[in-house]
Amino acid sequence: MSKKNQRREPPPDPAPLPGLVDAHTHLAACGGRSAEAVAAILDHAEAVGVGRVVTVADDMVDARWAVDAATWDERCYAAVALHPMHAGDLDDEAKAELEQMARHDRVVAVGETGLDYYWPSRSADCAAPQVQASAFAWHIDLAKRVGKPLMIHNREADRALLDILAAEGSPETVIMHCFSGDEAVARECVDRGYLLSFSGTVTFTNAAELQRAALVVPDEQLLVETDAPFLTPHPYRGARNESYCLPYTARFLADLRGTPEAQMAAVLGANARRVYRIG
Ligand SMILES: [Zn+2]
Ligand SMILES: [Zn+2]
What we know:
- The protein is an alpha/beta fold.
- The chain has a single domain (about 15-275), classed as Metal-dependent hydrolases (TIM Barrel, Alpha-Beta Barrel), CATH 3.20.20.140.
- Helices cover about 40% and strands about 15% of the residues.
- It is built from ten helices and eight strands.
- It has an eight-stranded parallel beta sheet.
- Strand 4 (about 105-115), helix 5 and strand 5 (about 150-155) form a beta-alpha-beta unit.
- The longest helix is centred in the middle third of the chain and has 18 residues, at about 130-145.
- One zinc ion binds near residues 24 and 227.
- GO terms for molecular function: DNA nuclease activity; hydrolase activity, acting on ester bonds; metal ion binding.
- Keywords: Hydrolase, Metal-binding.
- It comes from Gordonia crocea.
- This is Deoxyribonuclease.
C-alpha cells in the first residue's frame, strides 16, 4: 500500500474518553444527510465518549440539513448561519428563514459567521470582505435577538473581526470556533469573556504558537471540536475527520495543559453543555 493510501484510511478509534461534546462539526459534509447516516456517525462518536455534537451550517441547504439532523437524533444539536464565504446569499428571504431556524429549540447557536480573509483573493465564489462584514453584523444582532451564542469563523482576520464585535457589541456568549490566533489574540478574547474552541489544528507539529495560545485560556473558557470532515488531528492529518476523533484533540489539550485527561474531558464537556444549554 502506498503512503498516500495509508494516509487516507480513516483514523483508528481512540481509547474512549467519556463526557465529551463535539462543539463544532459538519455532519452533512461527513455524509450525514439521512437519519440513518447521522445515527451511524453519532453511534461511532458515542462509543468513544463523544455523547453530544453540535452540527453547523455553511449555506441555506446545509442549515436545513443541520436542523433536520438535530430533530432526527437527540444527541445532535444545530447551529445555523451563512458562512462568511456565502455572505452574498444573505438576502431578505434568507434572513427570514435563518431567523426562524435560529429560534428552533434544537438550534443552540448562530454560526458559523465571521470573516474569512483567506479565500476572497483565491476564489471568485467567496464573498468580498465588505459583504462578509455586513453579514457578520447582521448575525451578531440575530444572536442577541434570539438569545443564543454567536459561533465565529475567523480566518486571517483577527483585528477586523475583533473590531466589528466591539463596535456592534458582543452577544452574551461568543465562541471562537477553530481558534487560530496567537497568544495576544487569545488573551484579548479571554479578557472579553469569549470561549476559545480548539480543533485538530492545535495538535499539528507546526502549531507551537497556537499551543501557547491554548495555554492562556482559563478552564471555563475552553472548548474542543472536530470541525469534521476537515482538520483531522495529528498523526492522522489529511485523513477523513469525524466526531469520533475528538478524544485525540481533547487528550492533546489535557497533556499540553498538564491536566489529567478525565478531568480535562469533564471540563470541556461541562463548558459545552453550559454555553449551548444542552443536557
Ligand atoms: Zn469555520
Ligand atoms: Zn466549520
